[in-house]
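Title: Comparing notes on inverse folding

I've been comparing how different people in this forum approach sequence design from structure. To keep things fair, I'm posting one structure and asking everyone to reply with a full sequence. Here's the target:
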């Protein structure tokens, strides 16, 4: 499948690249060391409309299709992967589920504020004992008068401390069905736990959230009671495409740093770029990047409804894109470190950070082992048909 970007898409990508070059690249190393990004960065992204990419125009957003959204995410990740992760969580699972399943009142209350960057969204699914096995979550709710009471712990919640809206999943009692809820820190009292110290994506905020009989009124329910697991799986498909775009941006940044360094660095009287070993590394990098991007766009087209009867399902394609792009990112960043040699191993050179950031894309929103299970499930089914 070939892809033709429209003039509007090219202009949007150029705007995102300009923002990343001016607002992210100059600060990425500092934010990594400080473990904190500019607190105004999401407001700045909101001013450009990039916090409302998946919010309908009727509620103050841009209403981008998936391909355009992913083009922007790739550019943001090229500048700083931690910022891109925050935007992806906000724009994919949070605004996406709210726009699809929220009531008119919920949409009117939150979507314009999410689109402007006034508030940032968080997605609370994983738990200490329920990571890859999302269906095993233990956070629960019970009926309490006309409302509900929520108890449990959520782990690895990106944007969790700064969030103005949390999409959370909990089951009824110990064995009941899972539902989705909207938690607003202005309305619901819960505890933000410790900030995790992560291997990469250091500027991104990852925390625990704790709930002890938190009172929820009827308006906190998102969509249909008991349909939460299906909503979560749907959101993860979009989330995995977001990771694929982030990984591609990381790969591109690593490749460009390695290419530029190879053109400047002289060893044995020759530029590194003149050695065949280096040239082959760079060739393999750019090939893997192109493949990851093409697969990501194919999956985006499938999820947007442009399906080929001979192709895989949208969910399997999303898993393939996430698997391929994340492994390409780790491999490309690792080879970039190798091209830099001793300098690549130093913290103040960007390829070291990119390798740490790349590793995260193989883990969150479903590990790559889970991606292989998703793909194999469909492949084995087809083989036996």
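Reply #1:
Here's my take.
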């Amino acid at each position: 499948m070939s892809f033709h970007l429209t003039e509007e898409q090219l202009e949007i990508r150029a705007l995102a690249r300009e923002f990343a070059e001016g607002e992210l690249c100059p600060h990425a190393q500092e934010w990594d060391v400080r473990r904190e990004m500019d607190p105004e960065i999401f407001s700045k992204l909101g001013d450009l409309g990039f916090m409302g990419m998946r919010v309908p125009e009727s509620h103050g957003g841009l209403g981008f299709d998936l391909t355009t959204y992913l083009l922007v995410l790739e550019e943001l990740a090229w500048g700083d992967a931690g910022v891109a992760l925050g935007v992806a969580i906000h724009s994919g699972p949070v605004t996406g589920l709210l726009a699809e399943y929220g009531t008119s009142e919920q949409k009117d209350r939150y979507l314009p504020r999410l689109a402007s960057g006034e508030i940032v969204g968080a997605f609370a699914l994983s738990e200490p004992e329920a990571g890859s096995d999302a269906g095993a979550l233990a956070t629960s709710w019970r009926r309490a008068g006309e409302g509900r009471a929520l108890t449990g712990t959520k782990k690895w919640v990106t944007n969790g401390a700064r969030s103005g809206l949390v999409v959370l999943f909990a089951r009824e009692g110990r064995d009941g069905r899972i539902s989705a809820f909207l938690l607003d820190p202005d309305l619901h009292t819960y505890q933000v736990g410790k900030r995790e110290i992560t291997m990469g994506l250091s500027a991104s905020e990852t925390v625990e959230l704790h709930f002890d009989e938190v009172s929820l009124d009827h308006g906190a329910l998102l969509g249909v009671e008991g349909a939460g697991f299906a909503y979560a799986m749907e959101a993860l498909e979009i989330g995995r495409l977001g990771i694929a775009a982030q990984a591609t941006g990381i790969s591109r940044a690593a490749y460009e740093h390695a290419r530029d360094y190879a053109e400047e660095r002289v060893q044995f009287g020759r530029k590194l770029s003149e050695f065949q070993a280096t040239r082959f590394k760079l060739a393999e990098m750019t090939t893997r990047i192109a493949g990851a991007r093409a697969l990501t766009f194919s999956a985006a087209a499938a999820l947007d409804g442009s399906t080929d009867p001979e192709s895989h399902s949208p969910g399997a394609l999303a898993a393939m894109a996430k698997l391929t792009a994340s492994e390409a990112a780790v491999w490309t960043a690792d080879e970039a470190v190798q091209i830099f040699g001793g300098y690549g191993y130093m913290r103040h050179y960007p390829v070291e950070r990119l390798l740490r950031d790349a590793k995260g894309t193989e883990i969150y929103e479903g590990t790559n082992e889970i991606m292989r299970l998703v793909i194999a499930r469909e492949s084995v089914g087809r083989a036996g048909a």
